[in-house]
Amino acid sequence: MSQHSEEEMREAFEQFMISGKSKSSGGSEHPAAADKRRSNVKDKVTLKKVEKKYWQIINAIQGTLERDWLQVDDNLERVVSSISNLRRRIYLESRQLCKMKTSVTKKWSGCGYRGQNEGGVTVDDLELALSHDLLQHEKMMAGARMLLSSLSEAQEALARRLDELFLHHMDTVYVVQSMGCETLPSLLVVMTAVDKLQQVFSSLALELYRKQVLVQTILDAVNDNLLVREEEEEEENGAIHVSPRRVAEKCLREWPRDSEASEVNVAVLEGLLALGG
């Protein structure tokens, strides 16, 4: 075999190792087609990176929503329920205490086989229970203020995340349009979720305002009538005064996110939380 033939075989082998084809296999890929193929691969890699960042932001929003918004809202509902129960107990204890203090003790009431109030609740017992419940009521009121502040902070955190998502969304739309290539189906799914996120955020903002009004109503209802109120409401000087415990009960009924007064679409919210990537 001549030296010239050996050089040709070596060149053919090198070409095979580089392009995956030998010279004798017949023709190579057209340069334009090869460029287009490489461009498509590059575009798909870019779109995958874009989609990954979408899911990073959406997962962060889901975490903030579940951990900081919904959980705090559930805790607030439990606090409002405690306030309602405490106001009912305070009313009953103060009414009974008032009756015991104003009742006229008969001279012969302690002369029988059983002594007076033997085995029963004494005035001291009621005063101790009333003092304890009033203290717990103040703690629950302070807790409601603190949790409501945390709920507002959670809404602000969602707003920051949503701004980040919108900026990424606008950049993505520009990139996709400049590429002129077919968008990945999975990317289309996550891009359509942006509108759902905006809808949920708007409803949560309205729901936060509603909860703020409810808590403020509960706080403003505290007055001397917390202790004794014979009727549900009483008209005085042309104004109707509703008892504090009735206010708390009404706010508790309206509190849940699935109540008629709620601004939240529970189905849309659950659909958002179910998204995963």
Describe this structure in words.
By secondary structure, this protein is an all-alpha fold. It is built from 6 helices and 2 strands; from the N terminus they run H-H-H-H-E-E-H-H. Helix 4 runs antiparallel to helix 5. The chain is rod-shaped. The two termini are 62 Å apart. About 7% of the residues have low confidence.
The H-and-E topology, N to C, reads as HHHHEEHH
Distance between the termini: 62 Å
Tell me, briefly, the overall form. rod-shaped
Question: DSSP helix count?
Answer: 6
- What can be said about the biggest beta sheet? 2 strands, antiparallel
Structural class: mainly alpha
What is the strand and helix layout of this fold?
Layout: H1 3-19, H2 31-102, H3 123-179, H4 185-220, E1 233-236, E2 239-242, H5 244-254, H6 266-274
Antiparallel strand pairs: 1-2
Helix pairs in contact: 2-3, 2-4, 2-5, 3-4, 4-5
Explain briefly what this protein structure is.
The chain is mostly helical. It is 73% helix and 3% strand.
Features:
277 residues; mainly alpha
